[in-house]
Amino acid sequence: MRQSKLFTKTAKETPKDEVSINAQLLIRAGFIDKLMAGVYTYLPLGLRSLEKIKKIVREEMNQLGGQEILMPALTPKEIWEVTGRWDKIDVAFKLDGDGGKQYSLGSTHEEVVTPLVKKFVKSYKDLPVAVYQIQDKFRNEPRAKSGLLRGREFSMKDLYSFHKDEEDFSDFYEKSKQAYLNIFEKCGLNAVIAEADGGVFTDKYSHEFQVFTENGEDIIFSCETCGLHRNSEIVKEEKCPQCGGGMVKNKAIEVGNIFPLETRFSDAFGFSYLDKDGKEQPVLMGCYGIGPSRVMGSIVEVNHDEKGIIWPESVAPYSVHLVSLCKESADIKKADELYETLTKQGVEVLYDDREGATAGQKFADSDLVGLPKRVVISPKTLAEDSVEIKERSSDKVEIIKIKELNSRLF
RNA sequence: CGGAGUGUAGCUCAGUUGGCUAGAGCAUCUGGUUUGGGACCAGAGGGUCGAAGGUUCAAGUCCUUUCACUCCGACCA
């Protein structure tokens, strides 16, 4: 992508209505734009990062056996009355249609997915089943905050699993933990599993995936001896319930959450199956959520410095920022050629070919946008058939021959 | 939803006890000079002072209402 063609621009000054680091940097760098509190547009750079996160999520969900679907965001009142949740979910956005018809914008999808899967699953031979979608969720948060971390419209991957018995459910649930850890690791986040309240669905705990950072809004107690993590909401005393060791508390961002749903929804929708003996048995369910948009915000919260974002390679919108300081047409031509060559080879390059910007502006913008590698091409480097290469995460600058660049980028 | 704060140019902000034609920096446009860490000079364009109502000879400034945004709390992925 030629930066001169990118319709967004970077901003030198911090927006006054954003306090969180993720929103400040993502807005300044031209990744997102705020429409209203908790609702953001994804600009070209931001959309690329978001899509990369979603791709990582998809890979792991598919690996886990999940089948991707896309359910409607617009849902009828009737399905929520089946479970008694029409008036219970107070963050639900509700809409009035013609003829007294009422709708809700999806804040979660158990009421859609359970009758959906019920249509196709009748026998123990049809189980287990896991389906997922990646969609925008709508929740009328009483207080949207912290940029992408708590929005009113946000990207969510929600997976639902259906099982014939407890053993099968547990097996899948444990596998899902590993899939989640894989996702966060690939996204450059160091997440831990914390036990949390199971909510109204189960007596068991649910499990949260937490990334430690001072800007998090959850408090996690961690045992220094056995490594157990627990959300402060279920910690009654500051002593490890598992080994009795001392616990320390830290702030963290919840980037994922998995729940045993047991038969809460299958019972409500009359979803059962026939076992080998032809007997009707209840279907056990689990649900598993990750917010890709929140993950994106979390990545920025954890990976930045005073100059800007430091994207992990896996989720960076482009992997190389080719910064041209060339002025003469012969030099510009060489820079253009390098951009085209790299792009043809499959390297994702953002090419700063802007004519008006000074070297200082280009360097500052490059640090702000935070692509993993910066390659500078200038009259100086061209005099030696070279470019300068630098990692965003390091101060080390190297001059290398242009023909050696390939081996350094792959 | 309770408490607090902020709304003035695209962005960040000044604007005194109410007083002349509402300002600066950045950004944008024109011309010139610069050219490896957010340059410089000269000029130009850009405003329903969040909105509505009120007080006053006169309101960005005072009063009332309202909307938006932010923070703390409660709630929550």
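Residues 318-409 of chain A form a domain with the Rossmann fold fold (CATH 3.40.50.800).
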